[in-house]
Amino acid sequence: MQLFYNPFIDEKTSGFYFDKEESKHLIRVLRNKAGDNIEITNGKGCRFTGELMNSDDKKCQIRIIKAEIVDNHRPYYLHLAIAPTKMNDRMEWFVEKATEIGVDEITPLICDRSERKEIRKERMEKVAISAMKQSLKFSLPKINEAVTFGNFVKNIPDGTRLIAHCEERNKTELSKLEKKEKYTVLIGPEGDFSASEIDLALKNQFIPLSLGMSRLRTETAGVFICTAISLINS
Q1: Helix/strand/coil (H, E, C) string of the chain?
Q2: Which one, of 25, 29, 28, lies nearest residue 40 by Cα?
Q3: What global pTM score does this model have?
């Protein structure tokens, strides 16, 4: 199945037009034609079946013939606050894999030792959309603007708060986490969180989290956490 994306439709939508890029992909690349049916999502948990009304590769018209809420959401909520990696492609790799495995929200976290202070939010969103479509998911993770560590840890809603760091301190094992929780997990930059950041997180009820014996790259740690929490809740 090929899945398409339109964020502006809902259960009341009867029809719409794809933009030039998506129309070209439908008609020229995939060789769809008038009368064919396609599957679409709005990234908000809805699945639509649409019929192509024309073969215009610049403005393809779609008629919605079926709409349904897809009950394929995970029994937990995962928010990863992760320091941007030095190389953009590594951050994009993380966003892609986290979306495929399962994540609800991603916040780029600017830390004391961050080598990159800016992100390309639009590019990250495009990567997430592509990964959602490829993995046949119907919910798109929310990608937030970058925020400083101090501002982030002081404004977290209720739920399980975790910080993965490399210092030799008492830590909780992933296997000890409760199921069906709302998790907020902090992942630091290549040089790890500073001692003052760790202390601030602890003051704000974050629990130190162990990721095992190996020291992982930032993006690897993010994918590892997505996978582990998915397995815990399976």
Answers
A1: CCEEECCCCCCCCCEEECCHHHHHHHHHHCCCCCCCEEEEECCECEEEEEEECCCCCCCCEEEEEEEEECCCCCCCEEEEEECCCCCHHHHHHHHHHHHHHCCCEEEEEECCCCCCCCCCHHHHHHHHHHHHHHCCCCECCEECCCEEHHHHHCCCCCCEEEEECCCCCCCEEHHHCCCCCEEEEEECCCCCCCHHHHHHHHHCCCEEEECCCCCCCHHHHHHHHHHHHHHHCC
A2: 25
A3: 0.92
**Residue given tokens 């993006």 in the structure block:** 219
Check residue 213 and give its pLDDT.
Answer: 83
Cα separation, 129 vs 109, whole angstroms:
21
